[in-house]
Amino acid sequence: MEEVFEFAKDHMNKSIDILKKDLNTLRTGRVSIHVLDGVKVDYYGAPTPLNQVANINAIDATTIVISPWDKSVMKEIERAIQEANVGANPNNDGEAIKLYFPPMTEEERKKQAKKAKEFSEKAKIAIRNVRREANDKIKKLFKNKEITEDEERKGLDEVQKITDEFVKKVDEIVNKKIEDVMKV
Q1: What is the pLDDT of residue 126?
Q2: Which of 46-60, 81-95, 154-168 has the highest mean pLDDT?
Q3: Shortest CA distance to 100 belongs to which of 66, 125, 132?
Q4: Between 3.40.50.2000, 3.40.630.30, 1.10.132.20, 3.30.1330.60, what CATH number should domain 2-25+105-182 receive?
Q5: Rounded to an integer, what distance in angstroms lies between the CA atom of residue 102 and that of residue 68?
Q6: Which of 44, 75, 125, 152 is the most buried (most CB within 10 A)?
Q7: What topology is assigned to 33-100 in CATH?
Q8: Percentage of the residues of the chain whose pLDDT score is greater than 90
Q9: With contact defined as beta carbons under 8 Å apart, do 149 and 162 qualify?
């Protein structure tokens, strides 16, 4: 039974990690270099994450500077950023690429908050799927007469407690992010 609980906690924690990663891509009032996490650059024929071909720094609340280690990939980086549609057009000065993000409007903030809620729902679905798997394992133990009916009931209750705990964590994380997004 303990193995089932560990399985559930482990997989639910992974769902939380993925949620945090997804939320990092959302823009708040202050620009984050994580908005570029999904950008892949065609580096000598191989799609390579942007942070593996350049230094990326947020120099103020609305500006990101990308300094490629190899200046020959400047055009590729520019193209990748434009295709990724991160909310700013790249400005190439020959040495670095600068992204100037306009201040967020109320409408953009609401869109970001809505995306955060979508990420939240995705995480909750993943957590519920883990709960279902854990419950199936407990029911199988009962069916194979490895545990009693009381142990099965206690096990199912414990899995539900774990699930509720993780759903609450998801809500806390997402509400904090929405608060950050809506802050002017």
Answers
A1: 97
A2: 154-168
A3: 66
A4: 1.10.132.20
A5: 23
A6: 152
A7: Gyrase A; domain 2 (3.30.1360)
A8: 68
A9: no
Domains 2-25+105-182 and 33-100 agree in fold: no
Three-state secondary structure along 41-102?
Answer: EEECCEEEEHHHCEEEEEEECCEEEEEECCHHHHHHHHHHHHHHCCCCCEEECCCCEEEECC
Q: Give 173's contacts (C-beta < 8 A, 6+ positions apart).
A: 16, 19, 20, 23
Query: What's the number of CA atoms in the CB half-sphere (13 Å) around residue 147?
Result: 17
Please, are residues 179 and 155 in contact by the beta-carbon 8 Å criterion?
A: no
- Listed by start position, the domains of the chain span 2-25+105-182, 33-100
pLDDT tens per residue across span 130-172: 999 999 999 999 999 999 999 999 999 999 999 999 999 999 9
pLDDT for the residue 184:
67
Axis-axis angle for helices 2-24, 149-182 (nearest 10): 10
* pLDDT at residue 119, as a whole number: 95
